[in-house]
Amino acid sequence: MLILLLFFLIIGSFGEATENGANLELENGEFSDEGGNGTFFEDEYPPIYYLKNLTKDILGDDYEKEVSPFTISHIAEEDENPIPWNYTIFVPQLKLIDVDEPKEQMTVIMELVQHWKDERLIWDPEKYGKITELTTRLEKIWSLPFTAFGASEVVEHRDQNYRTAQVWHNGDVFVLIPLKMTTNCKMNMRDFPFDTQICEVRVGLPLHGPHRFEIGVYLPEYVVNSCTLGNSAWDIFNISYGQEVILSGDSNFDNNKLGVIKLHLKRNPMFYMYMIVLPTFIINAISIAGVFMKNTEKMDRLTVGLTHIMTMTFILALIADKLPKTEKIPLLGKYIIFGLCTMIVAMTFSTYLKKISKYFSEKLEKTRSAFGQKLRRFIGSPLRVICIIIFQAINLFAGLYLLYRLICFEQKYDDKKCYRAEPVMEIIPERFANGTLKEA
Q1: What pLDDT is attached to residue 34?
Q2: What is the enclosing helix (H) or strand (E) of 19?
Q3: Domain of residue 324, CATH code
Q4: Which family does it belong to (predicted)?
Q5: Which residues make beta-bridge pairs with 264?
Q6: Three-state SS across 289-356?
């Protein structure tokens, strides 16, 4: 019994010492050591302690999130030409959604990462448990007012209640913005459907003079060299990006400094070759043969001609709905109009061919020369066949010309199935608001 009593006394004393040594309480955000020996996790506080003190120090009442850090830096700068601050746009994802030719618009979805430096958010990691970065709500810090220039619609695919920013210990701030953007894009449809277009995505910072900042745009190599940025109707065969300055031309207004991403688009023309060119070629060939048939009556020829004209007009209307209303006729439109004119000439010629044959046959019937008799036989059925051959050759020539343009078009961009843009900044020439370039 004495031995058991001594054993329980030893156990009780050890438990009381352990409880007093580890009695740590968190009071007002700080850890206290009451009755202990002052050790905790090898003389280190837990990470939550450092994180709370860090957010209290850099995001406390002294941090003015309504005031731009660049404005403060500019006011404090005594030099007349202060060093501009850097604003960088990084595009890790980009995808073409649609190109609306009649409205001259392009729609893309993209992930855009904004980067700037806020010197008020700098801390020493050694004083805060080696914490080098933290993620916080965007409304807790000052953020740059992102603006898309020349865009008719910008939709941000992000819940406004869960917008976050990543802050690094050296003051670097990163903000991810997933968005869908529709931009205006002036198009040249002269070579349609063998055309290429250049559409731009332009972003900038309003109310910031261009002398105060430098804007950089960067796309990673896996985006630049990707083969899947386009869609079924368009391929993107090149991407260029850089900084552009829009000159106001007026000393009372600041110039605009923009970050620009230029997408070089190539149309996939096979849809139009199958759905428009091939049917048009067949309709032309059948209509030419129909109006020159030997036993075709005048009303039948007229019916064939009018049906052909109505069909070509309908096809032209389909093309017109897909194109902007420009003064230049596209190549496909020229082909259809050429076939329409060819058919009108063929119908007119076939209508008077019988009268012409009868007139010359009566004249040549009176002559007794061998040449005259041969010519009289020629202006009958052989002349009709020759007319069919001539007009069919014209139709075939027009079709082969479009096929030649298709082959040249595909060969020209065959080696650009995957893009050849270099992942470096490009300084785009300065230009005035009216579009004219600044003279060097």
Answers
A1: 43
A2: helix 2-21
A3: 1.20.58
A4: Belongs to the ligand-gated ion channel (TC 1.A.9) family.
A5: 198, 238
A6: HHHCCCCCCHHHHHHHHHHHHHHHHHHHHHHHHHCCCCCCCCHHHHHHHHHHHHHHHHHHHHHHHHHH
Please give the structure tokens belonging to residue 103. 């409205």
For residue 204, list its beta bridge partners.
Answer: 147, 258
Q: Residue 211: inside a domain, yes or no?
A: yes
Across the strands, what pairs with 181?
108, 154
The residue out of 218, 241, 268 marking a domain boundary is: 268
Q: Distance between CA 201 and CA 192 in Å, rounded?
A: 23
Q: Is residue 396 part of a domain?
A: yes
Query: Do residues 140 and 257 share a domain?
Result: yes
Range of the domain at 256: 69-268
33-54 pLDDT, tens digit per residue, is 444 444 444 345 567 888 888 8
Closest to 238 (Cα-Cα) out of 221, 202, 203, 262: 262
pLDDT band of 12, cuts 50, 70, 90: low
Which tens digits make up the pLDDT trace of 370-415? 655 555 555 666 777 788 888 999 999 999 999 999 999 988 887 6
Gap between the Cα atoms of 276 and 297, Å rounded: 30
What phi and psi, each to the nearest 5 degrees, are found at residue 105? -135, 150
Q: Measured between alpha carbons, how far is 14 from 12 in angstroms, rounded to an integer?
A: 5
Burial label for 253, CB within 10 Å (0-12, 13-18, 19+), is exposed
- Entry pTM: 0.74
d(CA 419, CA 221): 10
Do 207 and 349 lie in one domain? The reply is no
- In this predicted model, what pLDDT tens digit does every residue of 215-225 receive, in sequence order? 888 888 778 77
Total of domains in the chain: 2
Instruction: State whether 258 and 338 are in the same domain.
Output: no
Whether 82 and 149 map to the same domain: the answer is yes
Q: Over the stretch 148-194, which tens digit does the pLDDT of each residue have?
A: 888 888 888 777 777 889 999 999 999 998 999 999 998 889 999 99
Instruction: Give the model's confidence band at 113: pLDDT under 50 very low, under 70 low, under 90 confident, else very high.
Output: very high
Owner of token pair 């010197």: 119
